[in-house]
Amino acid sequence: MDEDFRTHLEHVSAARAELGDSMRALQDALALPLGLPVWGRRVRAALTELAHDLREHVELTESPGGLYADIGATAPRLASGVDAQLADHVFFVDEVERLLQERDDGIPRAGLGQHREELTALLWRGGGPPAWVGPDLRGL
């Protein structure tokens, strides 16, 4: 492995760790009592950070000469896995941006529960159940 690619992989790994940190921050924000002003501020901040870290992760992994290009060139048998990751990237970027826009547009108090459910579903799809979900729901 050449030094440039090794450095690239280190950047991908660091960006992935930051993505995990922002997902945990969103989990923590969602665990706060729903509807309090601090809930809205923390969710907005965490979602903004998640959007940033997700874009960085996508840019790094999908860049020319990057991780996915290397996998395509050196391990074509993994192409379907890369295609699945690319589709996930599109879904997650679109969904995070949609939820962030919804938050920016203002959510009526009656809609906060639905917003929280959508954010929770996003976290489940992104890496399993959020930490605050009880053990009785983890098998779903």
Describe the structure.
With 140 residues, the protein is mostly helical. The chain has one domain (3-126): Up-down Bundle (Four Helix Bundle (Hemerythrin (Met), subunit A)). Helices cover 75% and strands 0% of the residues. It contains five helices and no strands. The chain has helices spanning 3-30, 37-62, 67-74, 79-105, 112-127. Helix 1 packs antiparallel against helix 2 (37-62), helix 2 (37-62) runs antiparallel to helix 4 (79-105) and helix 4 (79-105) packs antiparallel against helix 5. This is Hemerythrin-like domain-containing protein.
Secondary-structure blueprint:
Blueprint: H1 3-30, H2 37-62, H3 67-74, H4 79-105, H5 112-127
Helix pairs in contact: 1-2, 1-5, 2-4, 4-5
